[in-house]
Please model this.
Amino acid sequence: MNWWCSARGLPWDWTWKAFPGAWILVGAMLAAYWVPLRRLRPRSEPPSPQRPYAVRFVLGVVVVWVAVDWPLGLLGAGYLLSAHMVQHILLTLVAAPLLLAGTPPELARMLLGTGRRMRIARAVTRPVPALVLYNAVLILTFVPAVVDAAMPTQLGSFAVEMAWLASALVMWSPVMAPLPEIRTLSAPGAMVYLFLQSLAPTIPASFLTFGRFPLYGVYELAPRVWNGLSAGADHRIAGLVMKIGGGLVLWGFITWICFTWYASESRGSPDAGHARRLEG
Amino acid sequence: MSTTHVRRAAATAALLALSLTACTAARGPTPGVTDRESSVSNPYGLEGVYLPQPQTKPEFTLTDTSGRPFDFQAETAGSLTLLYFGYTSCPDICPAHMATIAAALDSMPTVRDRVKVVFVTTDPERDSPSVIRRWLDNFSSAFIGLTGTPEQLAAAQIAANVPVAQKESTGSGGYGVSHAAQVIAFTPDGLAHAVYPFGVRQATWANDLPILLKLGAPGGPWSAEQRGLVVSGAVMPAPARKDVAAVYLTVENAGRQDDALIGATTMAGPPVEMHVVKEEGSSVVMQPVDEMPVPAGGELRLEPGVRHLMVSGLTQRLRPGDTFVLRLRFRNGGIVPVAVPVISYADLPVSSDMGDAEMGDMDMGDMEHERT
Model:
């Protein structure tokens, strides 16, 4: 039994397969959320965080689970680049903001402390470093040599997916950091920031969509999932998923920020940072 | 060796290793390739596994998907031919090879029509002609599918210098087929100068196919002429008997590499043997040989009383004035077609080596044959 999804070169079938690493990750995330919160809360208060936080966090964990476990995890690791791209979008553009929005400030403060970890967090979650870090990870993890070397191994596949998630948490922090100690952008700033982020994947997506030949050997030579879906078509779909799918998610956020900003302006309240609006 | 070539060679060696170790359905080594050779760069910019010693095109006749006999040598003569042994139920290597080649050819319309892809099944039990056709059509309707009896298919694999495929039980009552995983690329000169193990990608085909077409074209750098082989003086004396005749010719090797004549065929298919003539006491004996060396800078003279090619199985008596085509096969020079005029014995130049033998009176059929 494999603990994590990876490219194995075996024919694809729809028989369920167990990947305990995915379950352990999900369990660890939930434990890392609830156990500290139980300690933090006074005995007089309910042991769980406020419901909206919990709902968002659990949704984020569910998205992580869907992205890394069978079938999507296995399809993305060793069969279809388009599935790999869906994984990327789920982990970076859906799960990461949900996890951040689901983290109560006291838990974030406990995790980061007030010392070195907090200083590092404040440094890397400023907009420019966050954007650079996220896109550096994006580019690195989509370099053909890296993909072809990493995806056939469980550790490599795990590392790529965790790098996506970690860099996405950093990337979203300037927009929705759970702590007031970490400055978030104003609504217009957040919209510009996310707009810039929506442009960045256009370049690698173009290589995938308009490339003469498939970029990644691991997906080009993988056993086909459907006879009608060639490696070239899969690469083109992956490029469109990266460009259009990712763009839709980011533009959805931009629209949402715009509307909530407009609503707050209409009420005459100053823009106090939309992070507050995320609070339950 | 340039850095690029080193990288290419390393990548090729890695691909080769991958194809031989990671693919459970594949078996056997790449023909003609040693570890040392596969890591040697080639001067032609090929990304496939270059064969310093080219492989000759195999002779076999199988049945195509329309039920007609398919003479591999004759039907693919003059074309760049990609030969692959596989089976349609193959879950990984075979569809990947076919899909990769098809996609690469689709991207090169000018090359596509000059390449023949021949898929030979190693699973005749399940791969009927219609099954092969339907499967190949998933990739390209131009791909040629062949089948035959298990014996014919085994002979074809042996002729192509690949290990004969074996059935392997999958444990659930079914079976897979362990087969060679490489595509053999025969250039128009009738030789394979490169093979492509599993793991070769579309970009590699796109790089290599134009090179193979160019270098392996008649008159190209890989052709016998460019390698320094020139055949002249080919003649067949009008035979005394209807079914047996001798051919004489001269091969000059102006190249720097030793070569050898290793066989010959006629377009019509009668067998051709290579004979040397020996005098044993008072009788003259013809001894069949497997090859006749053509040394670098030297020549091979096939002349009466010394050595000749013997065409047997002729169905009609050839007369002076007739001409037929003989295809000579050289170890390195590939296939060289030669037009052979039929002349009368009186016009046959007599070699000084013949001594007192009177070739006009020689009857090939009556001559003593010695088997080695």
In short: Residues 20-274 of chain A form one domain. Chain A has one domain: 20-274.
